[in-house]
Design a protein that fits this description.
Blueprint: H1 3-9, H2 12-20, H3 23-30, H4 34-48, H5 50-64, E1 85-86, E2 90-97, H6 117-121, E3 128-135, E4 145-152, H7 157-160, H8 163-166, H9 171-180, E5 182-191, E6 194-197, E7 205-207, E8 212-216, E9 235-237, E10 242-247, E11 253-257, H10 273-282, E12 315-318, E13 328-330, E14 342-345, E15 350-356, E16 360-362, E17 364-372, E18 388-395, E19 400-405, H11 422-427, H12 429-436, E20 441-442, E21 444-449, E22 456-460, E23 487-493, E24 502-510, E25 520-521, E26 535-540, E27 546-550, H13 553-557, E28 562-566, E29 577-581, E30 587-593, E31 600-605, E32 630-636, H14 652-659
Helix pairs in contact: 5-14
The structure holds MU-OXO-diiron (FEO) and calcium ion (CA) (2 copies).
């Protein structure tokens, strides 16, 4: 039992649900719709007579070639081991690994200490997070040939270099690390039953911590964007800590710069009061930085380059299909620890982006473009993201919500609060959101629109600080103190119009061990679900089922992270089952399906984290040398859609039976 778990059991709000009080159940029940209450009773009835219920579903399965949800696979019960485990009748293989060459003649041998910055700039980056599949040719739905666009979030120097090198990493090794972050585009093909990358593709491209980028939107050219290397404030050097991302309707990527604050040190030396306020709110290192790379790179030292940190915390647009198109930092979407930026086109053709600020007690944002999307002319959408309105969410206690505009001159966003322009609003958008009275959330990670029911799913991964002395306590949208396990909110925009300024919301999942009364699986019988904790990245299959990748289960429920599926509609709403378990020390990221739904790509990030280069807890995927963050592909052995039984439907009934046991 982990330390966090003990805190969770001791929580007064949770205890109250066991008879002392009623706050928690009120919170959960208060956010159930009438439809859910009705359906929940129906499911409870079905579950009570499981033997009677199954034939009905199995009959449907025979008629349709699978259950109505299409989730017929046998839920995974992970065995003790160190490798990837997938559901029965499925297989996985590695597509591309850290250090794999993206140009002919380059390679990383098993000892990365010999790698030069130039080698890394021409090789697949570290700690893969977002994965996007872009079919080739552009505009096609090809599912065996395309580009992978992959974020390379951060580096683990303790796994990349021997322990005796760590205390004084050389400038060369620091520069390798700067080239290991950012973004990788690799052409991939499925041949002979497996995927591999094409080394000499003209599309292969790295965007790294040193790539020249353009700055667009309200902060472009602002005084605070000017540095000694970029005196006009219209360009900048590099992108880093690229966590999750999203694909635009015109086929580019919006990559979120997340924990940039850990790269900057000596913020105590900042003289201007506005700079000091910003540095504190964004968590820059007041003395040395987390990584201490400023020992070799002056631009990461705020006493030497006070404005450099303003170049990070943005959404970066990258075009995988056009290697020559210079990536842009889209400042209209605001500066914070972007988990991602995911988009949706409204019925009226407006493009809406959702993005979470992944830190404890931070916010959920959306950006509504002013101009309409042009589906016929890709080039016409190039500057769409520079003009629109940024909003932050307030979740009201009655299950309604408001999108509060973050516009200079409106409400508190005036000179009285040191906001003198929209540039100030987007640069210090956390402070603007504080002033607006937005709801402080439990670390918002991925936020995505379900393409089938058009609801928005907001993933809050955890927040063990909620309810601590001096911190915000539970509220209806973040219902647990010391929240170790996270939850997922289902948000419905008014009129199903994603440009609306009001919404309704309810809790969909309150994660954790299902035997814990404080968990909630959309009302489904919890004896029939898998345990899940710390949801992070999500995606949807063609039927609108929600697929969830986790980050942090080892700490929260003593299980490795994994990949799970759960229906969001119908009698199986909330029947969450595990599909895959990952490698020791890693989290699962970037879930992505090919257009035919027959391959799932997953990023295996930081395998072996918690151990060292000298004594790694795993040598995955090669079995020798260092662990390497990699993208894997998972497919059914019969090449059926991901989620199917994987064995020509013959095990549907068995899958349903096994689904009742969880793990
Ligand atoms: Fe990089 Fe919020 O996970
Ligand atoms: Ca994440
Ligand atoms: Ca994460």
């Amino acid at each position: 039992m982990s330390q966090d778990r003990m805190h969770y059991d001791d929580d007064p709000i949770i205890r109250s649900d066991r008879g002392v009080g009623h706050e928690f159940s009120d919170v959960v029940q208060g956010r159930l719709s009438r439809r859910d209450l009705l359906r929940s009773s129906l499911v409870a009835g079905l579950a009570a007579g499981l033997a009677g219920a199954l034939p009905t579903v199995a009959k449907a399965a025979r008629t349709l070639g699978g259950s109505p949800t299409g989730l017929d696979f046998i839920p995974l019960k992970p065995k003790k081991g160190t490798g990837i485990q997938v559901a029965e009748n499925y297989s996985s293989h590695v597509v591309v690994r850290w250090g794999d060459p993206m140009r002919p003649g380059r390679s990383m041998e098993s000892d990365p200490t010999t790698m030069t910055p130039e080698d890394q700039a021409n090789a697949f980056g570290y700690n893969c997070d977002f994965v996007g599949f872009f079919p080739l040719p552009v505009g096609s739905e090809n599912s065996d040939h395309g580009l992978l666009g992959v974020n390379n979030e951060y580096i683990n120097p303790e796994l990349m270099f021997p322990v005796d090198m760590l205390s004084g990493l050389s400038a060369e090794h620091v520069n390798v690390c700067m080239e290991a972050m950012g973004f990788s585009v690799v052409e991939i093909k499925r041949e002979g039953g497996s995927w591999s990358h094409v080394i000499d593709s003209r599309f292969n491209k790295r965007v790294t911590g040193t790539t020249p980028l353009l700055i667009t939107g309200p902060a472009r050219g602002d005084a605070r964007m000017k540095t000694s290397k970029h005196p006009t404030g219209t360009t900048c050097t590099g992108t880093m800590h690229n966590c999750a991302a999203g694909k635009t309707p015109w086929g580019t990527v919006l990559s979120g710069e997340e924990n940039f604050q850990g790269m900057f040190g000596q913020a105590n030396a900042l003289k201007d009061a506005k700079d000091q306020r910003s540095a504190k709110r964004y968590g820059l290192g007041m003395e040395k930085s987390e990584y201490e790379f400023e020992r070799h790179l002056d631009r990461l030292d705020c006493s030497k380059e006070p404005n450099e940190a303003y170049h990070f915390g943005w959404v970066v647009e990258i075009d995988p299909y056009d290697p020559d198109w210079q990536p842009r930092k889209r400042t209209a979407l605001g500066r914070f620890r972007h988990e991602a930026a995911t988009s949706h086109v409204t019925k009226k053709g407006r493009v809406v982006m959702y993005s979470g600020d992944d830190a404890r007690f931070e916010y959920v944002f959306k950006f509504v473009c002013s101009k309409p999307f042009n589906a016929k002319n890709r080039e016409a959408n190039r500057e769409l993201l520079d003009d629109g309105i940024l909003y932050v969410a307030r979740f009201n206690e009655d299950g309604t919500g408001d999108w509060l505009p973050l516009v200079f001159g409106q409400g508190p966003l005036t000179a009285a609060n040191r906001f003198n322009s929209q540039a100030d609003v987007v640069i210090d958008v956390r402070i603007a959101a504080d002033l607006r009275g937005a709801t402080k959330m439990d670390r918002p990670e991925d936020i995505e629109v379900n393409p089938v029911n058009e609801k928005v799913y907001v993933v809050c991964t955890n927040n063990t600080d909620r309810g601590k002395d001096g911190k915000a306590g539970p509220d209806k949208a973040n219902p647990r103190a010391s929240n170790s396990h996270g939850h997922i909110i289902e948000l419905t925009e008014n009129g199903n119009d994603h440009a609306a300024t009001k919404f309704k919301w309810e809790l969909f999942l309150v994660c954790g061990d299902p035997s814990d009364p404080a968990t909630y699986y959309a009302g489904f019988d919890k004896s029939m679900v898998s345990p899940i904790s710390c949801p992070d990245n999500i995606c949807f299959d063609a039927r609108g089922n929600l697929w969830i990748a986790t980050d942090g289960q080892a700490r929260a429920i003593s299980a490795r992270d994994g990949f799970f599926a759960v229906p969001v509609e119908g009698p199986e709403r909330g029947r969450l089952v595990q599909f895959m378990e990952t490698v020791e020390g890693s989290e699962v990221c970037g879930p992505e399906f090919t257009p035919d739904g027959r391959t799932a790509f997953l990023a295996i990030q930081h395998p072996g984290e918690g151990s060292t280069f000298d004594k790694p807890s795993t040598r995955w995927p090669d079995g020798v040398g260092v662990p390497r963050p990699s993208v894997i592909a998972i497919e059914a052995n019969d090449r059926g859609p991901i989620g199917s039984a994987g064995n020509e439907g013959r095990t549907s009934r068995r899958a349903m039976m096994k689904g009742g046991t969880g793990t």
